[in-house]
UniProtKB/TrEMBL annotation:
Gene3D superfamilies: 3.40.50.10210
Lineage: Bacteria, Bacillati, Actinomycetota, Actinomycetes, Mycobacteriales
Enzyme class, spelled out: transferase
Listed GO MF terms: nicotinate-nucleotide-dimethylbenzimidazole phosphoribosyltransferase activity
Cross-referenced InterPro entries: Nict_dMeBzImd_PRibTrfase, Nict_dMeBzImd_PRibTrfase_sf
EC number, as in UniProt: 2.4.2.21
Protein keywords: Glycosyltransferase, Transferase
Protein name (Swiss-Prot/TrEMBL): Nicotinate-nucleotide-dimethylbenzimidazolephosphoribosyltransferase
Length: 327
């Protein structure tokens, strides 16, 4: 299967981490000391090198369940927002400029007529009644995620921020996480882009029915992802796992991205040691995934915009922590 690996992913450099922690002992830097030591360990050197080529990669896709009318946003919002980001607009670009990062949008499965090396499908199946993708689409999504990670790392990125974009993606992430953690649908449902009582009921029903469809597949994680995930979530998972295997630090954003990191850790053990939690959102699935990964977010601003925006708000802390230990 696409994620099979002979050995777990190697951990960041323990000697560099120890050197960083010892050098900053008694500094009073608190968690910034630990954060700087994580950067040093990922780089395999102390003092750490300043982070100068941070890159946001937004994986965009549409989801069949969005047509259930469970979001305050129309399904066509995803493609319009992706186009805006590509033109340099939107919160993610503002925050990226402020934090000294750059942005790339990867159109994995938006619901429009387009094709290219990064495309997997036009949207995905409605996971409450049908499979999200075919086996061939699943494998292509994995390949796209890995290839994009390789492209960014080969071009010099020293820290990667995976982002998500797509109406319905928090529902998909919640369903997948609920299936793996055996969390009740009512406990994993979050606000997404906004909920009324009626929309909440629809969302719970979609997640319940999706989880029921994979109730016997606990020992087949890739099948669970194929049936009730989405191409963009699979690509995100492969992107994070490949980044870790290439010894590149990853700053996580909200629920879909953190659920992807949870999946990457399950399929490629050791991935989580290369990840740092940028922020905490109001999504229950986000907190559940963070706890499973044993990660503590750097900030909690209730940002639920996706696209890597919340992680970008935390990026200056990561940069400052590295430079403090290098000073």
């Amino acid at each position: 299967m696409p994620f099979d690996s002979a050995e777990p992913i190697a951990a960041p450099d323990a000697q560099a981490r120890a050197g960083a922690l010892a050098a900053a002992a008694g500094s009073g830097l608190g968690r910034l000391r630990d954060l700087g030591a994580w950067v040093a360990a990922c780089q395999g050197t102390f003092p750490p090198v300043p982070l100068e080529r941070c890159r946001v990669v937004v994986f965009a896709g549409d989801h069949g369940v969005a047509k259930r009318g469970m979001s305050t946003l129309p399904p066509e919002h995803s493609a319009a927002r992706a186009a805006d980001i590509g033109r340099g607009a939107g919160a993610v670009n503002v925050l990226a400029r402020a934090a000294g990062a750059s942005v790339r949008v990867v159109d994995v499965s938006l619901d429009h007529e387009a094709w290219g090396d990064e495309r997997v499908s036009r949207a995905s199946g409605a996971i409450d009644v049908e499979d999200a993708m075919t086996p061939e689409q699943f494998e292509r999504a994995v390949e796209v995620g890995r290839r994009v990670a390789d492209q960014e790392i080969d071009s010099g990125a020293d820290l990667l921020i995976p982002g998500d974009l797509g109406v319905g993606n928090t529902t998909v992430a919640a369903a997948v996480l609920g299936a793996f953690t055996r969390t009740e649908p009512v406990a994993v449902v979050g606000p997404g882009s906004g909920l009324t009582d009626e929309l909440w009921k629809i969302k719970v029903e979609v997640i319940r029915d999706a989880m029921f469809r994979v109730r016997t597949l606990g020992a087949e994680p890739e099948e669970v992802m194929r049936k009730i995930g989405s191409p963009d979530l699979v690509a995100l998972t492969a992107f994070i796992a490949q980044s870790a295997s290439r010894r590149t630090p990853v700053l996580l954003d909200g629920a879909p991205v953190t659920v992807a990191a949870f999946l990457a850790e399950r399929l490629s053990p050791g991935t989580k040691h290369w990840c740092q939690a940028g922020q905490l959102t109001p999504e229950p699935a986000h907190l559940i995934a963070l706890q499973a990964l044993e990660l503590t977010p750097l900030i909690a601003l209730d940002m639920n915009a996706g696209q890597g925006a919340g992680a970008l708000a935390a990026l200056p802390l990561v940069k400052a922590a590295a430079e403090l230990l290098a000073d």
